[in-house]
Specification:
6-stranded parallel beta sheet; 14 helices; 7-stranded parallel beta sheet; alpha/beta; elongated; about 375 residues
Length: about 375
């Protein structure tokens, strides 16, 4: 199924880009693709087609607002690669695509490379969005296709290093950019009586909700009114987190928000933004949620994982802590809850860093430079 937009008479003067992604679900990669589509749409010199390998993602309709066309690529069976390749080749020819841009997921990076080479297109490899400690099969496919691409963009230096491409002349880092319009009208300071903590992350084994929940009893001893907001879709671990919270007696102090694509209001009514992650399973690139915390002037407590140090300036905009350590979470959360002036200072510093380093306009301009270089 496609979602075409009305085309203008000047289409022939616009650069036509095909973006290939596994799905348009509720992840950070998808959020960034939509931000880029919005930025390109505003510049009027680009026509974007998004090809989705796994349809019916939660952000599919949102992407269709800014892309000129969103197309679901059909497959005969789960591991059918021939049908998507044929479909994509036809699409490239029909739409006169000039640049192919992949967005990760290993196998789809490889498919994108094959289509680009068959059609004689330049390929921008955008599949390096993480910084895994060890490359699994999917990661190895991503690396293989990156090594053969015309240009490579990662969203963190840590990601390029993890894939062994930090010194490749075709590689560059383009940091995620934040669409600040998402935060308009939201207060940066919650009511005085609110002592909310917030972690926005899907419930999966990549995220370490358990260490955060384990920190709650010690935090509650010092701050009995604290409420923890856990915002994210269930990707397999929600029930285990709930069971553990009940086991240690903190369930009354935790609110689960599992049905939203707009976490901003929950961040706004919190004092501290937290990102606790499992470094054994998952290596962060540029974590969007850290940027969202910073956009609302929240001090950040984040696991020392992948690209998190490229986002959070330790001791200035928040704290980068030892992963898997409830004690570290307690120490730094209690410090920030107990010192409102420090928390506000760190929150303001984070927003300043965000506006300077993670501006959406800068991100879009950087991609435009890559597209134009590939076209030429």
């Amino acid at each position: 199924m496609g979602f075409p937009k009305e085309q203008s008479s000047s289409d022939k003067d616009q650069l036509k880009i095909l973006m290939l992604i596994g799905n348009l679900d509720a992840g950070g990669k998808e959020r960034q693709l939509i931000a880029l589509l919005k930025g390109l749409n505003a510049r009027k010199h680009f026509l974007t087609t998004v090809a989705v390998m796994n349809p019916n993602g939660l952000r599919e309709s949102e992407a269709s607002q800014f892309a000129d066309r969103v197309i679901n690529i059909s497959r005969v069976f789960d591991f059918d690669l021939l049908s998507p390749i044929i479909h994509l080749i036809r699409l490239v020819k029909q739409e006169n695509i000039q640049v192919l841009h992949t967005w990760g997921s290993g196998i789809w990076d490889m498919v994108g490379l094959l289509v680009a080479r068959i059609c004689g297109l330049p390929m921008l490899h955008g599949g390096i969005r993480l910084s895994p400690a060890h490359l699994d099969f999917s990661n190895r496919l991503t690396k293989w296709s990156a090594q053969k691409a015309d240009a490579i963009v990662a969203n963190s230096q840590a990601g390029l290093q993890a894939f062994g491409l930090a010194y490749d002349s075709r590689s560059r880092v383009i940091y995620n950019g934040v669409d600040m319009s998402r935060f308009e009208g939201l207060p940066e300071s919650p009511p005085v009586e609110k002592q909310n903590l917030c972690m926005v992350a899907n419930f999966s084994n990549k995220k370490d909700h358990i260490s955060l929940v384990a920190a709650m009893p010690a935090i509650l001893k010092s701050f009995p009114d604290v409420q923890l907001l856990l915002v994210g879709h269930d990707a397999g671990t929600l029930e285990a987190v709930k069971a553990y919270a009940s086991e240690i007696g903190v369930e009354a102090h935790i609110e689960y928000i599992t049905d939203t694509l707009t976490p901003e209001p929950f961040i706004a009514k919190s004092r501290i933004g937290i990102l606790s992650t499992n470094t054994m399973v998952h290596g962060e690139g540029t974590a969007n949620v850290l940027l969202e915390y910073m956009a609302l002037s929240k001090p950040v407590v984040a696991s020392d994982n992948g690209g998190n140090r490229e986002v959070v300036k330790d001791g200035t905009s928040g704290f980068v802590i030892k992963p898997g350590s409830p004690e570290e979470i307690v120490k730094h959360v209690n410090l920030l809850l107990g010192d409102g002036a420090l928390a506000q200072e760190m929150g303001r510093a984070g927003k300043t860093i965000l506006l300077e380093k993670f501006d959406m306009g800068k991100m879009v301009t950087a991609y435009v430079e890559v597209y134009q270089a590939l076209k030429n």
